[in-house]
Amino acid sequence: MNTWRTFAAVLLAATSCSYSSSSDGQAPALTNNLTQQEQLCVEERLASGWELNLSNLQTDLSPEQEIAVDMAVELCRLDTSPSPTLPIFRNDQPQVSEELLEAPVTFDSDDSPPGTDSLLDNYWLQCGLGEAKACDDLFYLAPPGSDYEQFAFSCGGRRNMDCALLLGIEQPEGDLNPSTPAPGDDEDLDKWWKLCSEGSTAACGELRLIAPSGSLYAQFAATCGARGTSYCALILEDDGEPPTLKDLSPNLSPPGDDEFLDQLWLLCSGTDARACKDLTKYGPTDSLYVQFGVSCGGRAVAPCARFFADLNSSSS
């Protein structure tokens, strides 16, 4: 503590002299020849402590303000460690509209469809009757911001939750259940199947990430071990991240193998649930594209629209 006080006193004395020797309307001498890293450091210190920007230094500064500038410069020049790289996207602030979150109180299950699209109207009616898959299909086909989208997101004017869990859904293999034995086609996948069947959320997520798209392994994992939902965390105790998820991140650059998929990748990383779903649908089997889409842009193995909405609710 005494060392810091001595250092601060020296800086104050030096910067006071600097202020008295600088001419009116000119930036302090210590702000000259800053590296880009040092300039960013100074800007951050000034913005947080004094609400000053370097662009303001061409105007007259009070003695206290110029002391703050010189101290920030000295401290930043002493700190040679690289500045941390800021993420491109805020993972804790997904872009889910207020209209989607308020949909359960806006609509009722027996509301008539808008009537502007026959296919979407049909999905609307089925969703209103309690067909979970129809709600899901309606959501991803509906124009963004439309009544169709809001009705589907609320499971037909019911609740903002996983519609498969709320309404029930038929298993893709009919008699598939948590006790169904592993297919036996792949030793590694069989291991994750068994753990998923025993109720491990991490295992179900890992199986979904590494199993070939469309395979029985992927179907078993996508329904949380044949438990009727793709959102395992809603019904099982979370036991950690799938191992493969640790290699994924919202800031991961797209592979660059396909322009269309790369665009979907960037949108998915920016919390666009449709893009994540399309990336899973159109990406090559076993590709990084599919893994990125399945993981909601490197965040979690879950239904992305629902996952983003839940994150939004928890951060508000």
Layout of strands and helices, then pairs:
Blueprint: H1 2-21, H2 36-49, H3 63-78, H4 98-101, H5 103-106, H6 118-128, H7 132-141, H8 147-153, H9 163-167, H10 187-197, H11 201-210, H12 216-222, H13 259-269, H14 273-282, H15 288-294, H16 304-315
Detailed description of the structure:
The chain has 316 residues and is an all-alpha fold. The protein folds into 3 domains: 2-78, no CATH class; 98-167, no CATH class; 187-315, no CATH class. 50% of the residues lie in helices and 0% in strands. The chain contains 16 helices and no strands. The protein has helices spanning 2-21, 36-49, 63-78, 98-101, 103-106, 118-128, 132-141, 147-153, 163-167, 187-197, 201-210, 216-222, 259-269, 273-282, 288-294, 304-315. The chain is globular, with a radius of gyration of 27 Å. 37% of the residues are buried. Mean pLDDT is 76; it is low at 1-30 and 80-95.
Features of this protein?
single chain; 316 residues; mainly alpha; 3 domains; 16 helices
User: From the alpha-carbon coordinates, what is the Rg to the nearest angstrom?
Assistant: 27 Å
Query: Main β-sheet, in a few words?
Result: none
So what's the overall shape? globular
Contiguous low-pLDDT stretches (5 residues minimum) are 1-30, 80-95
Secondary-structure content class = mainly alpha
- Helicity range: 40-55%
What is this structure, in a nutshell?
This protein has 316 residues and is mainly alpha-helical. The protein is built from 16 helices and no strands. The protein is globular, with a radius of gyration of 27 Å.
